[in-house]
Automatic annotation (TrEMBL):
Coiled coil: none
Cellular component, GO, one term: plasma membrane
Protein name in UniProt: Membrane protein
UniProt source species: Marmoricola endophyticus
Transmembrane found in the keyword field: yes
Length: 262
């Protein structure tokens, strides 16, 4: 009987010793797995904080992209000034002739600044409290409470019809290659995302410009929705507007002139 007790005690002791070893092995495996995850995260993030990307809201992303784009545009303007200065120092008749032709084409192409009287149109999404209430009740639909690209296009088209000499959106000059596109709650213009309110400025006869806005059926429909759900629509005249020239790329990315189309 005592022998059996001794054998049982040895068996229990042996099993008790095996448990710590098992947990030791599992601990080592867990440690190695955690290390592998850390290394993978570091490689995927390229040394950056992954948490920042997960908590960054869209508005912050838009602001950062705008700051980066503004810095690049400033650099482009500086380089263009250097090119102009170098060209001005070249004493060549052919170069002088081409420079004069470029200077004449800048104004109609929208590459030079324009000043004079005009109007400023501001469009904005519905207030946050209106959007939250609509989200709770489902009425009106969410797409009725925001400014769409077609609303901005309608204003720009009406101003052209009203005889505008130059137009800007968010202080970016509108030219023949400009496209206004929606991307979620923002509008993309010349590759830069913008959030509301959207400010459109036009140089021209204020009376004619206002009349053209009033005659647009699309703007009339927008104003009805704006009045019902508190979207922003405001028009102001200005006797001394100054609009910048377009300073972005001029090459077409996708379209080709008819003479080059295959």
């Amino acid at each position: 009987m005592r022998a059996r007790e001794r054998d049982g005690a040895r068996t229990h002791e042996h099993a008790a010793r095996r448990v710590p070893r098992r947990w030791h092995v599992l601990g080592v495996v867990a440690f190695l797995a955690a290390g592998a995850l850390f290394v993978t995260s570091y490689v995927n993030s390229d040394g950056l904080d992954l948490r920042a990307a997960s908590v960054t809201d869209l508005t912050s992303v838009v602001r950062q992209e705008r700051r980066d784009t503004d810095a690049l545009q400033t650099r482009v303007a500086e380089l263009n000034d250097q090119v102009d200065a170098l060209l001005a120092g070249v004493d060549d008749k052919d170069v002088d002739r081409l420079q004069r032709a470029v200077a004449r084409a800048k104004a109609p192409a929208g590459l030079s600044g324009v000043s004079g009287p005009g109007v400023e149109v501001t469009l904005d999404d519905a207030p946050t409290e209106v959007a939250n209430r609509a989200l709770e009740t489902g009425d009106p639909p969410a797409d009725q409470l925001v400014v769409h690209q077609q609303d901005l296009q309608a204003v720009v088209n009406a101003l052209w019809l009203g005889g505008a000499r130059a137009i800007t959106l968010q202080d970016q000059r509108i030219v023949s290659t400009t496209g206004i596109k929606c991307a979620g709650p923002t509008v993309i213009l010349h590759g830069v995302p913008y959030s509301p309110p959207y400010v459109i400025k036009a140089v021209g006869d204020p009376l004619r410009l206002r009349a053209a806005l009033g005659e647009s059926a699309w703007i009339g429909a927008y104003r009805e929705v704006a009045a019902a759900y508190q979207l922003g629509y405001d028009v102001e005249s200005d006797d001394a507007m100054q609009l910048p020239g377009y300073d972005g790329p001029l090459d077409l990315r996708y379209a080709k002139p008819l003479s080059q189309a295959g």
